[in-house]
Fold each of these.
Amino acid sequence: MKILLATSELFPFSKSGGLADMVSSLALSLGELGHEVQVITPFYQCVRDKFPDIPEGSWMTHVTMGGGEVFGALRRHVWAPGVEVLFLEHGGFYDRPGLYGEGGQDYSDNAARFVFLNKAIWHWVRYGSWQPDIVHVHDWQTALFPLLWKHLEKGSSGEGHSPSTVLTIHNLAYQGIFPSHQYPLLDLPWDYFNEDNLEYYGQWNCLKAGILYADYLTTVSPQYAREIRTAEFGCNLEGVLDKRRNHLRGILNGVDYGEWRTTKNPWLPVSFQLKSIGFKGKMKHRLQEECGLEPTSDVPLFANIGRVVEQKGMDILLPTLRHLLENGTPMQFIQLGTGDPYYERQFEALAAEFPDKVAVTISYNHGLAHRIEAGADFFVMPSRFEPCGLNQLYSLRYGTIPLVRATGGLQDSIVDISENIAEANGLKFSHYSVEALLHVFEQAMHLFEDKHLLGKFRRNGMTRDFSMRRTAESYLEVYLSLPGSGHKAD
Ligand code: ADP
């Protein structure tokens, strides 16, 4: 099968979150399974800087946007057997320090930047030398493609090539909503500017267009697929999603175990496996030293990595930590992440107040993320909502016990002892409150003292298979269920 994946970020070339990891490992797994894969993604400044050998553009893109012509180039890079990356180059749009913005502010021309990406995808699929059977788009940044394709191909004879389209929603909270005065960028008739199409409270919504026009929808865990059809999690799109429920499936993300491995990992100073789990203690000491904490085995080391925003539960994590620390709880805590300046400052204040117990790094650091995953005893994810979450899957592989809220992919991947004693691999709480989080921290303290049970949790985590191969096979089932020609389902 020929599969074109379209994404606004792709690890290791560009990354702001789980989207980059997921598309990267999906592409590589599909390639390993013998399929022909292309990934189309912007040629950002970080890609230019880190990968200077990517060849010059060999395919010229020119599309109409807002009535004028816009030009770009596709730089073709063979990434792995059967997997090619097409980097869309446009100096003005993508050669910037950020992917989506800088200093906490979105770029003001994001509508144009991503409409151009969608139009360039259309141009490649329509006129390129390689005709995909499936175009699989991800999140709002590429969600306009199914609508553009269907609109632009409407007048054609129907005999030409027409791929099926799949949209994966990685996070419904980000929808790509733009004001009506930017609608002309799309060059679509105003017929589409109504509530049955992409109009959304007087503006236009890229994700809504994808939900309505993709042949099939997926999201990144079965639990999140159920949640997004409710008012609590639906971000005002629950009605549209419910309409398409027969074409919506949740598929849990998988892990690239080539990257996330505990032995021969260039990011880790110590190797360990289940049969040599004692070395994980050594890894913990190395991490404590690196973060300026006392290297000790006597207290549990908790950690969190990720965007420090409300979605990730920072508003309950910070008061919980403060309570534990002010009460002299024997523990250490490491935080790595950037995000909302308000939460960043609160973490820094906590580290300043409890320097022997708390270490905070406000930056993006891939290597340190590996070492934290490997060296911590417990990984804390008190998310308000979590479409899939990857860090708990990395933690499990690294013998680190996730302490999570029962939502989205956290609910699907973590087994609490109250659910199944034999398969327990983490600790879970449901109610979104400081009290509930405190209670689960206390459970973790007890578990830390019970080395036999701790070992059992680790074994269950390290041996459970969350490989991307299984995820890729589920996506293949979806691709195979679709007709070769795209038509509006429902
Ligand atoms: P989301 O996509 O919602 O941000 P996920 O848990 O799905 O959350 O994925 C986040 C990914 O980004 C993980 O691979 C995580 O380790 C990584 N990550 C987030 N922040 C940082 C950071 N500051 N340094 C290194 N890696 C980070």
Note: The CA atoms of residues 59 and 362 lie 40 Å apart.
Amino acid sequence: MDYETIRKPPVNAHAVRPNLDDYAGTRSAFDYERVIDGLDGLPGGGLNIAHESLDRHVAAGSGDKTCVLWEGKDGRSETYTYADMAKLSNQFANVLRNLGVEKGSRVFVFMDRTPELYAAAFGTLKAGCIIGPLFSAFGPDAIRDRLENSEAAVLVTTPQLKEKVYEVRDDLPALKHLIIADHDASPEVADGELSWNALMADASDEFEIVATDPEDPAVMHYTSGTTGKPKGAVHVHKAVLGHYATGRFALDLHPEDIYWCTADPGWVTGTSYGMFAPFTNGVTSVIYEGGFSARAWYEVIEKYKVTVWYTAPTAIRMLMKAGDDVVKRHDLSTLRFIMSVGEPLNPEAVVWSEETLGLPFHDNWWQTETGSIMIANYAAQDIKPGSMGRPLPGIEPGIIDEEGNVVAPGEEGDLAVRPGWPSMFRTYWKNEELYDSKFRNGWYITGDRARMDEDGYYWFVGRSDDVINTAGHLVGPFEVESALMEHPAVAEAGVIGKPDEVAMEVVKAFVSLKEGYEPTPELRQELTRFARGKLGPGVAPREIDFIDSLPKTRSGKIMRRLLKARELGLEEGDTSTLEDD
Ligand code: ATP
Ligand code: MG
């Protein structure tokens, strides 16, 4: 699969000079401890993410700048300045103080992307508590697991979502306060519930941020559950150095940008890059409450004149599936820089966006545990479609072998990172043992397999758990999926290793088709031939099944472990983050 390198002109069409235009120079001179020079620190000493995100802009005289352009599900728009967000979060910090919630307590939110969610998150940080966001589509079991494990003392939810909490409330003795918020109206509250509106009305909009140490826990995120039971990764206030620096370098944020991150705060992308990176960099963010539809998303970009857009492969594949006509009906010319994260980005998607949107998607790699982007394609650098790009300033990844030694360029191994960057997780909540197991010879082991080429670009191979061993070859599912995606009939593909007496495993593909294609035996044969031509007979799938849609996590990741369990008739394991069919 040869894709041509996408070359970047010295000056792009939007004439914006990329922040990271001297990659080698910036990397060699970079020191994370000095990033604080571009930030503030708390007036009385200490560091707090909410201060860096909101209050410091107000103190510097930028309180009137638009922080959030909110688009409700029903098409309503509301505008919030940095001063508005600072005040709303002060109020919520006072709410927690008035309730007697102590520093270090876990405060969870379980709600749609309304302004209240953001006020609660920053208010929690200001009060010195730990914010834990839950995705609003979670069911009762997912809610119980996370609130039980974290022993959350406060949960903010909505009249529509609270029933799911009631199904498990008896299992949650640590949960003292259930706050009900409704963006539209003052909610009716039952016994044992508190009204957001009543609490906020009684709370002052001035608050002195609790003195938090850079190493105090700030955010707890459960992983996506793609490979097993979700783990609670704990991040500290010092992570904000990473959010700020990567916002500049990887997102290429400039003060005049209108930025849209499509991720929900229930996932780490939705906090690190849906709140902290854009807010610390003082840009204007679009927050769209609604879910995915190609038309609605293009409308958001057009309506708000989005310049920088951060989304995920699953959404990009759906946009590709929706076709180019719907793109043509919208003016997307304000876009200047677009990015993707969460899963491998098929090279076909990069080429599609170049052709259809006039801009290539820039893939980048990181995970809940790393807290911020580690490897990225940059505004000023050429893109090799299919590659995750090169390491951020201040980040030292390595491809290592089983002993923890770095392998030669071009060789496959475990993707690892040298610990010590600010946003690295400090532990898995109540699971120190698992945390300790993630290190080898001074490296943090990410659980992904990858290669680095001679130019220092990293190439994703697969998750360690997903790599297929067939007749002595190690095959990464991503390579096979990407080859299948090049066929015009294929919308999505998920590839697993199926146990086999002779070959140990054989490659099996599950394929969902684009509209207008029928799952016929002829098409199956054609796809087999097509994949063989691209990959060779040793790597191409031996079996192909057609499937309406692939099982995915709520954050849109293909769950290969579930394809495998279903294929083999095994237990499905933790499915609390599985998307509804
Ligand atoms: P769990 O750890 O519970 O199995 P998860 O690993 O999917 O779930 P996240 O932390 O949300 O949880 O996802 C990080 C993982 O997503 C990475 O380790 C990697 O496997 C995958 N990923 C993220 N970005 C990319 C990318 N650009 N290319 C390839 N894979 C990516
Ligand atoms: Mg993971």
Note: The domain at 1-17+56-61+236-464 is CATH 3.40.50.12780 (Rossmann fold).
